[in-house]
Design a protein that fits this description.
By secondary structure, this protein is of the alpha/beta class. The protein has 20 helices and eleven strands. Strand 6, helix 9 and strand 7 form a beta-alpha-beta unit. Bound molecules: 6-O-phosphono-beta-D-fructofuranose.
Amino acid sequence: MMEGAPTYLPNPVEPLAGTAAWQAFAEAARRADRSGGTLRVLEAAGLSVDLSTQAQSPELLAAGSALLAARDFDACRERLLEGGIANCTENRAAWHTALRAEEPPGRVAGRIVAERDRVRAFVRHLDAEGRFHSVVHIGIGGSDWGPKLVVSALGYAGTRRQLRFVSNIDGHAIEAGLIGLDPQHTLVVVSSKSFTTTETMHNAQCALQWLREAGIADPWSHVVAVTANPEAAQRMGVAPDRIFTFWDWAGGRYSVWSAIGLPIALALGAEALDGLLQGAAAMDEHFAQAPLEHNAPVQLALTGLANRNVFGYPSVNIAPYDARLLHLVSYLQQLEMESLGKSVDLEGRPVTLPTGPIVWGMPGTDGQHTFFQWLHQGPEGAPVDFIICREADHPYPEHHRLLVANCLAQREALLRGKPASALEAEVAAKESDPARAAWLARHKAHPGGRPSSLIVLPRLTAHAMGALLALYEHKVFVQGVVWGINPFDQWGVEYGKVLATGIAKELSGDAAGEGHDPSTAYWVGQWRGRK
Ligand code: F6P
């Protein structure tokens, strides 16, 4: 055990690459069938997870289970689901599952249920009084992506209140967030776990000033806060009965299940928030109970490990074939990259295999006309997670048929590919010069053999959305266990914030500032003293 590392860490966290279990897994992956020739669909909490075109074999399945056993997975999962210390560097639980449990676990049940009831009573009260037809939600990262994703997805055809989401410190964001709204009928929701985040605190002050300038006698009556730091919200001036809390054992990027979900209830009704939690709780049940070989988050995680560390894909593409899932990629970027973007293992040693992949993407079919060229013919390519709903909610059946057709076709093209030899005849039919035909065929060839997963939701309901997000949360957790890293901290975000605070002082002339590299010094000089 490395000096300084906490004693409750699973013993030992061996460097992964050198372990027999990893080498057996990697070997099995290399020997596995990647032809997509065998249908493999897992059912979980109403979702279908198709891994048919991913590497698969009975040997790989067994090696995956053996790898998990070697990494103490069962104990780690139990520790997570029972609120043990899963976030070792902050000495905290990561108990987001408790937030969505129908009957939350004993020692936190009271406060979880009480806060849930407070949020719902508050929304019902506003609904009954017909108060606030607009909401400006101010928050960033995990205090923004969740509510923004869910409201824009489930409220695509309209919401009970107009919701504006403001996150960026760029003043154009708050300006656009307030423009055209009637302050008399606007509620400002300030969401921040720490209640110290620069962007959120400054944007909140702007919104308050906007309320004051509108002559609102008591601007605080238009403000609520959602935070794990209620004392700071009270110091800011938010009335205690307008502060909704959650707890430090819920990570920011895992917090949409808490009072952070308030905007969802304001926009769509409390039943949407309840549905979201129920869907996630159903996935938690599956994750906790399903045998490993049928456990969708576990198998999605092992598939990702093979793609990342055996087949060497540096990234994974997320392709939600649903225009309503506009913010899903950003949500998953934070979830995956802030969780798995780590270079040291639980004991503080350098990792021995690359960890979290780059997560990128865009809703389909827009992605097809943006970067699918790269996915099909680029030298590396990337595994793709296609996400689609069986049923649409719009009145255009032909559109949905074409959406499904394109989604399935892109998967097939990535898998099957088309070699130049198969294209030559086709090209030659249009091209009289055989040499040119052969040359052109080489440009049109698709390498194929590119894996993808297909996640099918029955319909885009709150329940299915909750299940989908929980699926990815647990996938990330499993990968963290195998890589032997802590997926629940994010120390890497602090350094830039500290430097920004210093430079901000320099720009306002409140500090001299030294030790910058020439470029930073030059531009600080360029901006210093400017309005
Ligand atoms: O800087 C990253 C981060 O700390 C995220 O982890 C978090 O979700 C976000 O900033 C916002 O933090 P807060 O909710 O404390 O304002």
